[in-house]
Structure formats: structure tokens, C-alpha cells
Design a protein that fits this description.
CATH class: Alpha Beta
Distance between the termini: 50 Å
Radius of gyration: 21 Å
Strand content: 5-15%
Structural class: alpha/beta
Largest sheet: 4 strands, parallel
Number of strands: 6
């Protein structure tokens, strides 16, 4: 205790925690908001940034698919249900599907046995998550209400096309209403897609990861081409700062 009391870092942290800090509300729009640990690195970065900026972080969790048009979201849900039903019609298929799903989930979220779920983050995620009994329309309205009440928005990465249009809508809202937006990985890709569609007039612009036949491939990427060691990257213009930094 004597050593801690002499530590400048300890004294500073104690001092700032006793002060009233202005609250800042940041909306995290993602695809895996039911598992706060999936965004652990983003969560820790936000907490450190808030401490550095002397702000009280109010993190608002928003499922990106809830921001999409209710009709479109229902079509997506029905398609997923039909696919699951078809897969389960074969004898023993349900058990195998459940086993595979459990194994996949375990593999996805158990990157390290030492990783622990932040209790505060889990509680915040649960508090922000709409009731499972809520209708799609209620979830849609609740998601947009939370987004419109945020001071800033962060959209992290993800895989697959579920909820990507919700991220596009998020980027559009942030641009049109001058709300600070930070896109990470897929979040940045959807920002580019949104700008191409609604500012540059490239109707149907998309990433080739989701629409390989799009007439306006603003982002050309896929999970299989992340390793750029064996791929050549063409940068234009060749004398730009980005080109010099990348190469």
C-alpha cells in the first residue's frame, strides 16, 4: 500500500476517478453484440481513450441487422430458417448441425483459455440488448433510437453478409448528420460503399466479398485474400503518400 500511495500513476487514476467526468455516448454497431468478448480489443481501446480524454464512457451496443429495413431483415431471417429446416430434414442432420454449430462457436470465441469476459461489458451489452421477445419492428425502432442518441459511432469488423446493409445505413446516417464515425476493417469498407452509392452515384456499389458481380466493386477483398504476401497491389497514383507508406 505504501508503494501504491507513492505511485504517480496510482494517484492520478484515483484523482480522476473521484472527479465528475463529462459523459460521452459511443454506439458500437456490430454483428456479434450478444458476445461482448468478440470486441474485447475495441472495448479496451475505447476505455483507454476515454480515460485519456477525461470522459466517462457510455458504450451503447447496437446489432447492425436491427438497423436494416424490417421487411428485408425478415426475408433474411426466413431464408436462414428455411435453410436450417432443409438441412435438418435428413435423419440425424439436426444433431450433426447442432454439434457443428457448437464446435464452430467454441472455436470462434476461445482464442485463448486465459481470455475473460469483462463483467461490466457483459452487463452493459445485456442492458442495451432488446428483449428477445420484442418484435422485429420494435428492435428496429430501438436500434435507431440508440444510434440517434450517440455522440460518436464505431463500426468494427465482421465476417459474412449478415448485417452489412445495417452498417451501410450507419455510415450514411453519420455522414448526413455529421456524427463522428470510426470504421474498423469491415466498418471502413462499408463506409466506402456508402459514399460510392450515395455521393458518387454508383448504384449497387459493393464489396466483391458480398457481391462478386457488382458493377461498382469499390472494395475488392475476401477472407481468402487477406494474405497479401503473395499478391501484388497496384497503387494509384504511384507518388502518393499512401503508396509510399504502404510499399
Amino acid at each position: 500500500m505504501f508503494l501504491l500511495s507513492l505511485s504517480p500513476v496510482f494517484r492520478a487514476c484515483s484523482y480522476f476517478h473521484l472527479l465528475y467526468l463529462p459523459r460521452v455516448s459511443i454506439a458500437l454497431v456490430g454483428k456479434y453484440t450478444g458476445m461482448s468478448d468478440a470486441y474485447l480489443s475495441v472495448l479496451k481501446a475505447l476505455k483507454h481513450a476515454a480515460t485519456h480524454a477525461k470522459r466517462d464512457l457510455d458504450l451503447v451496443w447496437i446489432e447492425s441487422s436491427d438497423l436494416e429495413d424490417v421487411k428485408d431483415a425478415q426475408v433474411e431471417t426466413d431464408a436462414a430458417t428455411a435453410t436450417a429446416a432443409a438441412a435438418g430434414s435428413a435423419p440425424g442432420a439436426t444433431t450433426e448441425a447442432n454439434t457443428s454449430a457448437a464446435a464452430a462457436a467454441s472455436s470462434s470465441y476461445s482464442s485463448s483459455s486465459s481470455t475473460t469476459v469483462d463483467p461490466a461489458a457483459a452487463a452493459a451489452a445485456a442492458a442495451n440488448e432488446p428483449s428477445t421477445s420484442a418484435s422485429p419492428h420494435e428492435k428496429h425502432e430501438a436500434a435507431w433510437a440508440k444510434l440517434k442518441g450517440a455522440d460518436g459511432i464505431i463500426v468494427p469488423g465482421g465476417f459474412g453478409d449478415r448485417g452489412v446493409e445495417g452498417k451501410v445505413l450507419t455510415a450514411q446516417y453519420a455522414r448526413e448528420h455529421h456524427v463522428p464515425y470510426l470504421g474498423v476493417c469491415l466498418g471502413m469498407q462499408m463506409l466506402v460503399v456508402e459514399y460510392a452509392r450515395h455521393v458518387l452515384g454508383c448504384a449497387g456499389a459493393n464489396s466483391t466479398e458480398f457481391d462478386n458481380d457488382t458493377k461498382h466493386p469499390t472494395v475488392s477483398t475476401s477472407c481468402a485474400t487477406w494474405n497479401n504476401v503473395c499478391n501484388r497491389t497496384a497503387c494509384h497514383p504511384v507518388d502518393s503518400f499512401l503508396t509510399r507508406t504502404y510499399l
